[in-house]
UniProtKB/TrEMBL annotation:
One of its GO terms (molecular function) is zinc ion binding. It comes from the Bacteria. One of its GO terms (cellular component) is cytosol. GO terms for biological process: glutamyl-tRNA aminoacylation. This is Glutamate--tRNA ligase. Its EC number is 6.1.1.17. It comes from Salipiger profundus. InterPro entries: aa-tRNA-synth_I_cd-bd (IPR045462), aa-tRNA-synth_I_codon-bd_sub2 (IPR020751), aa-tRNA-synth_I_CS (IPR001412), aa_tRNA-synth_I_cd-bd_sf (IPR008925), Glu-tRNA-ligase_bac/mito (IPR004527), Glu/Gln-tRNA-synth (IPR000924), Glu/Gln-tRNA-synth_Ib_cat-dom (IPR020058), GluQ/Sye (IPR049940). Residues 3-304 form the Glutamyl/glutaminyl-tRNA synthetase class Ib catalytic domain.
Amino acid sequence: MSVVTRFAPSPTGFLHIGGARTALFNWLYARGRGGRFLLRIEDTDRARSTPEATEAILKGLDWLGLDHDGEVVSQYERADRHAEVARELLAKGAAYKCFSSQEEISAFREKAKEEGRSTLFQSPWRDADPATHPDAPYVIRLRTPMEGETVIEDEVQGRVTIRNDQLDDMILLRSDGSPVYMLAVVVDDHDMGVTHVIRGDDHLNNAARQMGIYTAMGWDLPVYAHIPLIHGPDGKKLSKRHGALGVDEYQKLGYPSAGMRNYLARLGWSHGDDEFFTDAQATEWFDLSGIGKSPARFDFKKLENLCGQQIAVADDAALLHEIEAYLAASGQPALSEGQKDGLLRGMYCLKDRAKTLPQLLEKAEFVLTSSPIEPDEKAAKALDPVSRGILAALTPQLQNASWSREKLEETMAEFADAQGTKFGKLAGPLRAALAGRSVTPSVFDMMLVLGKEESLLRIRQAASSETG
């Protein structure tokens, strides 16, 4: 059997971090088995669904690198097909017309509540003779078995049993002829050939009701895997108070997508003790048996740690592309061609210990800025008159040096020795001269990335400045 999974978000807002993890699990499961990963937009709620939200979802998936197969399916556009199935169920006796008004249903529930009975509505039209049907609006309800049990064999939750007398005769088609969400989901999953339904465990009870439609239509059930929701660090349901909720916010904060994928995959799923892994490893390792039953807790420190590891091993060109996307998403100026070239030259010394893209760009300030350098307050203190004199004396020594790390280290050591000091004393003024900052990559890395001409220009300008 060829595996087909799907992600089916509602376009009523941003792509929630929980939805992103669901999409990732479906994507990993399909990709790891040579299957297909489909995308369906569940836009039947016309009052709340917006094109902007759909676009935000698509952008979020694109940033996460979760490509889908085939065209995006609109659930709303398939309403005629959903209604067709409801009428088919009606024709075969698996569903029936219910003429009860909302007032009658409310009255039934109120009376049942007073008498201490179940408030689950029992339609008087379930077994009514069609000859007694009035010429009035009606809904179509599924004829749910009144006895026995519905058993969900869930790949994550295990065997879940629900008594059928706890399930109502679900409405399939409203009185205006529009299909309900529960029917639409089943019909779409069947028609799209979905073999595995991997979704949040808040849909677990829905599965029992949806299975009734599959059974009545004689369709094969999909494999169900209901995954626990994500909680905040305090163990409560993830919400705004815990920080960013939308995937777009994480991009704007500068988390790399590879780190986000790594962390989300690890959030509620495990492969032994492995924390850091590549996309290829995640695709190979991911399975449903590794998903835990308990809610996962979102931990920003773990996210940053994994993001730092992913940045360190990232391909330089791919990382530059991600930086450009981050700057655009966060409303910052685009990089010039010169800045891009400088970043690529410097990636080898910028990626280490940067946990987010803003941290990497902070380290890269020396190559993103242009001379004359304006030192910040702390760096300016390192350019006192004595330090500027040392830089002036160092300049001709560097002018004659070969521009390799070995020769630069040798020249600096000889100069420091001649000055009766250690290189550490030279590092502060050099950082201030080359970057205008006190925290930077190593002086030698900056000089190699900037090149001889630019490095000497900055040192000369610092030596002749009146800063300090």
